[in-house]
Amino acid sequence: QLSSTFYDGTCPNALSTIRTAIRTAVSKERRMAASLIRLHFHDCFVQGCDASILLDDSSTIESEKSALPNVNSVRGFEVIDKAKSEVEKVCPGVVSCADIVAIAARDASFAVGGPSWTVKLGRRDSTTASKSLANTDLPLFTDDLNTLISRFTNKGLTARDMVTLSGAHTIGQAQCFTFRGRIYNNASDIDAGFARTRQRGCPSLSTTANNQKLAALDLVTPNSFDNNYFKNLIQKKGLLQSDQVLFSGGSTDSIVSEYSKNPTTFKSDFAAAMIKMGDIAPLTGSAGIIRSICSAAN
Ligand code: HEM
Ligand SMILES: [Ca+2]
Ligand SMILES: [Ca+2]
């Protein structure tokens, strides 16, 4: 149902307008590329790719922004709002927020050295959001391998897609509370030197200030989209528990090894998996709406 030419007749400048907005944002702050890719993921896994994650609290909506995997963590809303307002200037009421999020993720990947791909378009925006589904359907940093796999197969994605898409952790940052347990655990699945290094930036004492201290998900090339994430896992230098479980003697070890040796395969698989993720339960035809402001259901 979705089609890459969806706006060719109704808003031929949509893609270039969005690209300019994303390039500007990423050149101001490189981490924004990571945040925008994650935003698309956290949208698609909850009610499908319908921009539900962008809705604020209202009398009828309990925002997904306050769900545990999102609160004080998901970023990029202002960038999407800015891209939307630029697009509204050239073609009011035509381009959905859900499509803007999907395009932003693609443009963000390309801006930091990742793959590009042809984004399928024609998603419409939801009038509802689900904080409870955001709490139940998004993966947690404490998930074991089988849990991660089933969260993705529940959305029509394979175990391999899960490993591929986890490679997005080649860029971006995580807060201390998400990896503290792992770096102070003295477990055999973490490199001892890496654990010590990360301990220096993430004190064991849980205070608000300590919990928010940031570390790169990829210690080698935190700002570029490459296959170092997979090389790190082989060296037991995954930051999150949910990263390291992808290479810990289980069924996905061979995929991690493959990507660690073959950056080209990783990038082309990543592009294909992002397209597949972007296909999760879109609203099309007369379902849903085109919001005029992404944070409210008109
Ligand atoms: C496999 C299960 C996954 C888990 C458990 C997980 C968990 C996390 C956690 C805990 C953080 C740090 C958040 C914070 O500290 O505020 C994070 C960051 C991030 N995640 Fe994931 N994630 C997963 C999969 C994915 C996927 C599939 C993508 C995209 C395709 C993705 C993209 C990112 C990016 C880019 C960041 C950095 C964001 C930034 O710097 O703003 N993650 N993830
Ligand atoms: Ca959604
Ligand atoms: Ca990297």
Descriptive overview:
The chain is mostly helical. It folds into two domains: 14-138, Peroxidase, domain 1 (Orthogonal Bundle); 145-273, Peroxidase, domain 2 (Orthogonal Bundle), CATH 1.10.420. The chain has helices at 14-28, 31-44, 77-90, 97-111, 131-137, 145-153, 159-166, 176-183, 192-200, 208-211, 228-234, 241-244, 253-261, 263-277, and strands at residues 173-175, 214-216. It is globular. The structure holds protoporphyrin IX containing FE (HEM) and calcium ion (2 copies).
Strand segment count: 2
N-to-C SSE string, H for helix and E for strand: HHHHHHHEHHHEHHHH
Number of domains: 2
Shape assignment? globular
CATH topology group of the largest domain = Peroxidase, domain 2
Sheet/helix structural class: mainly alpha
- Bound small molecules, deduplicated: protoporphyrin IX containing FE, calcium ion
Give Rg in angstroms: 19 Å
CATH superfamily of the largest domain: Peroxidase, domain 2
Portion of residues in beta strands equals under 5%
Indicate the CATH architecture of the largest domain. Answer: Orthogonal Bundle
User: How much helix, percentage-wise, in residues?
Assistant: 40-55%
Give the SSE map.
Blueprint (H helix, E strand, L loop, with lengths): L13 H15 L2 H14 L32 H14 L6 H15 L19 H7 L7 H9 L5 H8 L6 E3 H8 L8 H9 L7 H4 L2 E3 L11 H7 L6 H4 L8 H9 L1 H15 L21
Antiparallel strand pairs: 1-2
Bound molecules: protoporphyrin IX containing FE and calcium ion (CA) (2 copies).
